[in-house]
């Protein structure tokens, strides 16, 4: 059903030459926009545990969930991306086991 | 009829329970048990919860004989607790609430313990002693809040017991507290330990430091046995808890005590509290390990009360919080 993090489209990471900050992008395709929305709304409420040095933005377009990180340090970025992938795979597994969404 | 499913995972237990109008339909649970001498770390605990949560959810539905469509509301622990395990459980609760098209409800873990204790024991308006690995509070209800009359000023009583167990390498299976309780029954010699009650509050960190420092010396010199230490530690910390509970009862003119939380299933604590209650002509209420120790049904029960009184949590407000005091919650379901 929904793609796991590993199967998602190529991820992109780079250092922004203007800001000097690290940027990381991840696109995750879902079978339908409804499922992408469920994932977006499940993954969005919790803020980053760390106060500064990193920001994470989740958006969706069609059936694709997109995540964009901006971080000061690679170490902080890695922790956040790893933890997000753990969360994403749990949400996807939950959707596979208890989905698809019931029609409202 | 109102059916609420509750998700709990704020510490090393993961539990999912289903309640239908005061009836516990199912309440499966798993515990993350670490080797002797080790505590549970947030990321390892979260990994444990991720690995089993969907199996536990299937069990909860199967044992209750319900389909997702029969559920009216999905309750989960919003806090307090360890961040990573809390997020794990909240993610699944949010996802199934959306998949099933059901409202979501974030529950204060402490309120879950209190409401489950009230449901099981039918205690009407008790003074509550809430004792666990993460919390130690004496609570009484007044004007729409569970008010904290006394609490620990440092570590929880259960944390003191757990960490003592690590020092002398007592097994964490099924729980360090249970094993201390069994060993304490064989202890005969009372070793004096610091007794620290400060007004309505208690402190356990000094007792822990003292026993951490002294335990191995006393054991290797043959001054006392590990059983004696378990006995002495229990007698000391439980006496402190009984003292502040009694003082809170006197303040409130209360004739009921309810003990909740993981340490609450300790029979020696119940006995000591029982003696105090007898002397005052008061009544003691306690539950066994099924409902004292963290479980899903307690979140479902508090959720049931909240949902029936008109509360729901919007998805965007469903963030978890490591700090969430008992008295922050407006109790909309009691007079």
How is this structure best described in words?
The complex is a heterodimer of chains A (104) and B (335). A 4-stranded antiparallel β-sheet of chain A has the order 1-2-4-3. Chain A has 104 residues and is an alpha+beta fold. In chain A, 35% of the residues lie in helices and 27% in strands. In chain A, helix 1 packs across helix 2. Chain A starts with 11 loop residues before the first strand and ends in a 6-residue tail after the last helix. Chain A is elongated and about 45 Å long. In chain A, strand 1 and strand 2 (22-29) form a beta hairpin. Chain B is of the alpha/beta class and 335 residues long. Chain B folds into 2 domains: 3-114 and 292-328, 2-Layer Sandwich (Nucleotidyltransferase, domain 5); 125-290, ATPase, nucleotide binding domain (Nucleotidyltransferase, domain 5, 2-Layer Sandwich). In chain B, 44% of the residues lie in helices and 19% in strands. Chain B is globular and about 65 Å long. The chains are: A alpha+beta (104), B alpha/beta (335). Chain B: It holds the Pfam family TsaD.
Proportion of strand residues of chain A: 25-35%
Number of helices of chain B: 10
How far is the N terminus from the C terminus of chain B? 22 Å
Spans of chain A of at least 5 consecutive residues whose pLDDT stays below 50 are 1-8
Number of strands of chain B: 13
| Total count of strands of chain A | 4
Envelope shape of chain B: globular
Mean pLDDT of chain B: 97
CATH topology of the largest domain in chain B: Nucleotidyltransferase, domain 5
Q: Can you give the helix content of chain B as a percent range?
A: 40-55%
Percent of residues in beta strands of chain B: 15-25%
Largest sheet of chain A: 4 strands, antiparallel
CATH superfamily of chain A: Alpha-D-phosphohexomutase, C-terminal domain
- CATH structural fold name of chain A: TATA-Binding Protein
Approximately how much helix is present in the residues of chain A?
A: 25-40%
- Write down the overall geometry of chain A: elongated
Q: Within the largest sheet of chain A, what's the order of strands?
A: 1-2-4-3
Largest interface: A-B, 25 and 29 residues
C-alpha Rg of chain A (nearest Å): 14 Å
State the secondary-structure class of chain B: alpha/beta
Number of domains of chain A: 1
